[in-house]
Amino acid sequence: MPSTKGDIVQRDSRFPPYTWDVAGNEANFFIRDVTGGSRLPFRIRPGAPTSSLEISATGNVGFGVSNPTLVTGSSNKILAISATNNPILAITNTTANRQWGWYVDSSGFLAAFDANATANRFMISTAGTVRINGLTSCTSGVQTNVNGDLSCLSSTRQFKIVAGDLAPNVALANVMALRPQTGAYMETPDVPEHWLVAEDVAAVDPALAGLKDGKPYTVKTQNVVADLVAVIQQQQRRIDALERALMKR
């Protein structure tokens, strides 16, 4: 089938002439940059579905949706990407044939999928609840490494090099040296708080503080709890010994 085309030639005398073709044939409909090496920056293939690209009367742009609406309620958002049972936004690495993206799951969560098409890697509910796949049942808490990766605070022996029992005298010295403080966070000055301060804790025992950029930043509460347990156990052993001595009198 012969192509139909119309030339668009720039006539502004301030710039050199530039020619574009608008054409179509059995292979595609296209706009050709004639002056720029006959490249085809815009092309539509036969069989493209309805509303592959649609601009609404309000100026919203949709891909795969016939009535594009705002991505959010903000009036400066004019792009909506949507398709039934498909990601609402996807990024594809065609070389590796991998895809990353976001979609709305059956529970209404805005959910992410990874390059292996594993769904629900990260989810946000309409109520603002955030869920991260792999951080289930983190009863001991959540931690980060030097790269900022989130993970459950692990208590299993398989990830630890256990050197031996915590010496009760070390634990007692730490507990007695700790200085609980009162105050408030700068962002919420009217809310009273009771804390252990990271810098103070690190001065007592570096094992009790977490670092950021090489400086004390957090208190390792699990380590403080271990010291408290060792102290309580030692005190209970002494109480038991005193009670046995009294019973012998």
Description:
There is one protein chain. With 249 residues, the protein is α+β, with helices and mostly antiparallel strands. The protein folds into three domains: 4-44; 55-132, no CATH class; 160-247, no CATH class. Helices cover 18% and strands 33% of the residues. The protein has three helices and 18 strands. It has a five-stranded antiparallel beta sheet, with no helix packed on it. A hairpin with a 2-residue loop joins strand 17 and strand 18 (215-219). The longest helix is centred in the C-terminal third of the chain and has 27 residues, at 221-247. The protein starts with a strand and ends with a helix. The relative contact order is 0.05. Residues 71-80 and 82-86 have low confidence and may be disordered.
Summarize this entry quickly.
With 249 residues, the chain is an alpha+beta fold. It folds into three domains: 4-44; 55-132, no CATH class; 160-247, no CATH class.
What class do helices, strands and sheet pairing give? alpha+beta
- Alpha carbon gyration radius: 33 Å
Q: Helix share of residues?
A: 10-25%
The termini sit apart by 115 Å
What is the strand tally? 18
Reading the helices and strands in chain order gives: EEEEEEEEEEEEEEHEEHEEH
Supply the number of structural domains.
3
Arithmetic mean pLDDT: 81
Please give the largest β-sheet. Answer: 5 strands, antiparallel
Order of adjacent strands in the largest pleated sheet: 8-9-10-11-12
Beta strand %: 25-35%
Quaternary organization: single chain
Coarse shape: elongated
Uncertain residue segments: 71-80, 82-86
* Count of discrete alpha- or pi-helical segments spanning 4 or more residues: 3
